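We modelled the chain as a single entity of 299 amino acids. Its sequence is:
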Amino acid sequence: MSLAPRVVLVHRTTEYEELVARHGTHGQAAFFLKSRGRDIEDVAERHRRERRALAEVTSSVPLTWRQARVERADLDRFLFAPEDVVVVVGQDGLVANVAKYLTGQPVLGVNADPRRNPGVLVRHGVADVGKLLGSAVGRGAAVDELTMVEAVADDTQRLVALNEVYLGAAGHQTARYRLGLDGDRGAVEPQASSGVLVGTGTGATGWIRSVWQERASRLELPGPGEARLLWFVREAWPSPVTGTSMVAGALGAGARLRVTVESDRLIVFGDGMEGDALELTWGQTVEVGVAGVRLRLLG
């Protein structure tokens, strides 16, 4: 007998909850915000909207289905199952946060606060959840498959991300490494920089786009489903032993950017989650390219 589908509700702690946890009571949190020219009622109202949305989504899950709930900070300790349907209730960034832990499970993004969230990845309102859950486990569901980026170290450590991966020194200090490209006749350059950023078409609405725009880059931004990545070296420093000739480019489906560490410690993290990073030491190598897995986002 097969198990009923399991809905995994992903959410994050609200700003109001964080304030009360830090200051102990609502009153203390209100005093803290007032001393800085802010009104706690604005924060509390956003909290109420998000919690109402989460409660309504929960009530839309069929009674015969199983349920689980996980907070953003616990994602790296949660075990997703193949039959799960993942429902993300919150902001666009929360979809990116959960994507790295999935292996093809369908994801439904629910916009908890349409007045504040653009809704690029959390595309649906609360009222649509019941109908969409039914289609998620059937054949013919409308699903967008979004390209992801992966970093694989020579010691088998692996990390995937939906928007981008960052390779550099912890604390964003100067990183030293050798950068090379597959398929470019073995070109390699020693560099000292603020790190390397490799992003997808989904990430082209965020950090990658800001670097691309700042440099007036002529590289074409990829689409979310396109198996192509852009990479940029941040603030490369020219010196007698470090170069700046290889600072940007594109990676197709089979290409890899290769970075060999020449510092005591470098880290690699994805989608802003620095707390869940790969750690590399002197002499180690990491390769970055298009991931074999994609995010299956319900349209």
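As a brief sanity check on the tokenised model: Residues 40-60 form the longest helix (21 residues). The CA atoms of residues 174 and 283 lie 17 Å apart.
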